[in-house]
Each structure stands twice: as structure tokens, then as C-alpha cells.
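To: structure subgroup
Subject: Chain for Friday's discussion

All,

I'm putting the inputs and outputs inline so they're searchable in the archive.
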Amino acid sequence: MAKKLTALKIEQLRPRAIRTEYPDGGCAGLYCVVQPSGKRSWAVRYRRKADGKPRKITLDGSLPLAAARAKGAEYMERVAKGEDPAAALQIEKQVVRSKADAGDETFGNAVRKFILRDQKPRNRTWIEVARMLGLKPDNNDDKQLIAIKGGLADRWGKRKFAEIQKRDIIAELDKIVDRGGRGITANRTLAAIRRLCNWAVERDIILVSPSAGIKPQVEEAKRDRLLSEDEIRWLWDGCDKIGQPFGHAIKLLLLTGQRRGEVGEMTDREIDRHKHLWTIPKHRAKNNEAHEVPLTDAALAIVDGVKRIRSDATYIFTTNGDSPVSGWSKVKRQLDVLMSEIAGEQGKKLQPWRIHDLRRTAASGMARVGVQLPVIEKVLNHTSGSFGGIVGVYQRHDFAVEKREALNKWAREIARIVTVIQERA
């Protein structure tokens, strides 16, 4: 164990050829630092409780031993409570710097730049990231973003980004959970804020990320939910009652196994009715490669059954003609009510599910009717699994015939399942 330093011993310390630290047995973590030049300072060293990473706080060398010990003890007490005082000091310095510099970036300006310069060119779900940060595209100009009333960009917009602190973010996440108990929504919001903060650090807009060390609100379990045959019947019947455009879109999700955003943003330009083929352009596909989806008779009938709203955009699933449908969460709640009513009539109960579960249900259903895994992965446009790594480089077969056969088998299986509805009607 290190011996206690004394004022006399500190005075007698002589510079060496290299920087030297002398531990003080009177205060855990406190060191007297002597540079080769003879300059002295104090250092408080500790390991962060969250991840065990070493941290250091430098104190003024002019501090007397007693004052240095008092300061060191104060910091170590905060560490014992789970705090990271070194990070807190960095943020405090950043706030001081931001107040002194009137030209520092506001949160509102920074978040707009982040979405338009970083997310929009490279992230297919950039609109969702923007929404979580409190912005939405202007319908008249997609290069402009407007603040959502009550959103982060609205409430924090005029604040200096450097003034946003960890406790602000935690309070925001707590508010999301308290408002609706949706820990997963809070997790997604934290992920969006963390991306923004990391980008801002890279751009030297802020010195350190205020989101560092914040844990997700809930631990998310791996999803394995599949809809049963009963639930598929309830879903189909519920979609009939909801009608277009959402009822048709949800049916198409189940029939094709494609992603919600891909189906929701479908346009007439992407459909070749002669070939019964839907081509998702590369800028809309998750892996940035155009993806061809064979359309079964049932799928094409759903597409053609949607009443069109004339516009240059040619969106199929739209309520205004100028933008794809939004408000999926509201429609999902309506569908849950309808499905639960049908289930109750049969003496059964609907279990919680998500729209993305339809994609997993389609994949499982195709496997059940004899479709091989590599073909299912091609239908879903997966680039990992059977086609990951070197296999994906050399395996260039498009599986067009196999994909069409797989989706036809799945369409026939759905027809068999939902026929019960017609028989009961």
C-alpha cells in the first residue's frame, strides 16, 4: 500500500527523465505528477463503474495537499455512486465554451444538417430517424425539413447543442416511457439521438456526446412471433373491414413478405403488369440493390383493387397522392380491435403482434409448404445467411423462376387458410 504523502515529501520530489506519478496513501486514486520540466500537478485516477474503463481527472498543481485530497475524495465518492466525473467535467467545459461563443451551432440547425447530409443520402429509413428527432419533410420541398410541434427539434431547437446534457436526454426517454409505457420506442429514440451526437462529435460541433453511457430503457428480446392460421383469418377479415389503402397494403405485406416501407412506398412505375412483376429500385431496397418481386394473381388483384389518386408520384398506397401512407401505428391499433372482436366471437384471444411479424410469418409459411431456405432468402432479399460472404460474390443466379413458384405456393396456402372466412360468412 502506498505511503501517505506529506507537504515536505512533495517539496523534496525531484524531476526525472520521464513523467512520474507518486500515489498518495491518504486518498485512494490521488497522484502527485511531476513532469521532467519540474512542473507539478495532481491526478485522480479511477475506473468507470459502467464498463471498467480507466479515467483521469487533472487538478491544478498549485493546490495544497489537503485541498487535493478533499477534491480527490469528492470525485471518488461520485465514482462509487456510479457517476463518471471526468465526463461531467468535459461537458461543463463544453457548456462554458458554448456560452462564450455566440456562433455555436443550435440543436435545430445541427439536427437538420445531420438528416440532410448524413441520413438522407445513406439511410433508407431516414424519415423515421428524422421523426424521432422531431422533424418531417416539407411536402412542398423534400429538401426542407420542418419541426414537428412538440418534438425535440421544436422544444430544443433554439438551444446550443453543446448545452444539451445527459440528464436532458434521460428526461426525454423517461417522458416517452411514462407517456405510453413503450420502452422500445424510447430505445429507438435513444439510438437516433446517439447517432446524431456521434455525428456532431465527428464534425466538432460538440466535444463529447451527452448520450454516452445511457443504457437502453428496456432489454429487447429476439422476435420469433408468427401468426397462426386463426390469426391470419382474423387479419384478413380485419383488413377487409379497414379497406383501402391500409387494408390492401397489409394484405400485400403478408402475400409478398416484403418490408413495410417497401410496400408502403410502392408506385405504379414499379409494376410490370404484363410480367406480373414488381421491381423495388435500389434506392428503396435495404441492400441498395434493385429487387424483383414476382406478383401472384392474388397480389396483383390487391394492387389493382386500390383506387388511385392521380399524381405525378404514382403512389399506390396513399391518402393524398403526393406522399406514401403514414400512420401505420394508428391503423395497427384499429386492426387489433377488429381482430380481437373476431377472436372473442370464437372464444379465443389475440396475442400481441407487430406488423413486421407478417414478414416472418410469410417466410415460415413458405418453408412449411416446401420452399427451400435459399429461395426464401431471395424472396425476402436477404444478403446474409446462405448468400453471405464469398458466396454472395460468386452466386449470381437471380432465382426468378424459383421465387415466383415460392410466392405462388404461399398465395395458395393463404387462400386455403382464409377460405374459412368465406365459408362462415
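Points worth raising on Friday:
The longest strand covers residues 40-47.
The domain at 229-424 is CATH 1.10.443.10 (hpI Integrase; Chain A).

D.
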